[in-house]
Amino acid sequence: MMRMVYALYTRRLRRRLDGAVMPRHVAMVMDGNRRWARQRGFDDPRIGHRYGAEHLDEVLSWCAEMGIQHVTVFVASVDNMRKRDAAEVGNLMRMIEQVVAERLSRPSSVWRLHVAGRLDVLPDSTRHALKLAAEATRDSTSGFHVTIAIGYDGREEIVDAVRELLESESRAGHTVPDIAQRLTADRLAAHLYTNGRPDPDLVIRTSGEHRTSGFLLWQAAYSELHFCDVYWPGFRKLDFLRALRSYAARHRRFGA
Q1: What pLDDT score was predicted for residue 85?
Q2: Which residues are known catalytic residues?
Q3: Exposure winner among 50, 116, 157, 231, fewest CB in 10 A?
């Protein structure tokens, strides 16, 4: 009975969103995998990473259905890579290689893959798998783009962008005063990991945490934020549609 009620409500909410203003770009913090596994009674909470990785495939299908062309997902931060138990990090990286990279590179996938983050902190096998998947999807003409933020930290991204801009300007023969005079937000943004992709309109974080944890610090300056109490593997289509409903009901002011 509950499944039937859920299905009916989901279909009704989906119909109500017809004609509503939809985000062009949705960014998501995939949080709560281990807590979901503990809640479900699994002996090893690391199994939540597999369920979380597999669930991304389903969430991307919802995005495509709603015509959302750009999706960015926060998989792991630099701190996750450096400070968490090595076995847990290794398990998460295997899930990225075996589930995310493999599924996105299938011919049936409509998504073109991009990667954002400090790839030097990733294991060689993970870096290689993501590189192959990105190359396999490079010629996609579907118009759908997914960015995997892995080994990512928003502050380090900005530092890297400033460093790259300075190095580029220096190679062109510009002095420090020249660089300072020429510096603009657009010039700096051109050196971010996400250059060439639009800023997110909506950022969703699962697990009930009400913070962005350094995710897309620059890009999300004017994004609408939506915090969802469910853990990522339990994030339902109904929860996703509610986030879109909330977005459609807001009047975006872009800092005005």
Answers
A1: 86
A2: 31, 80
A3: 50
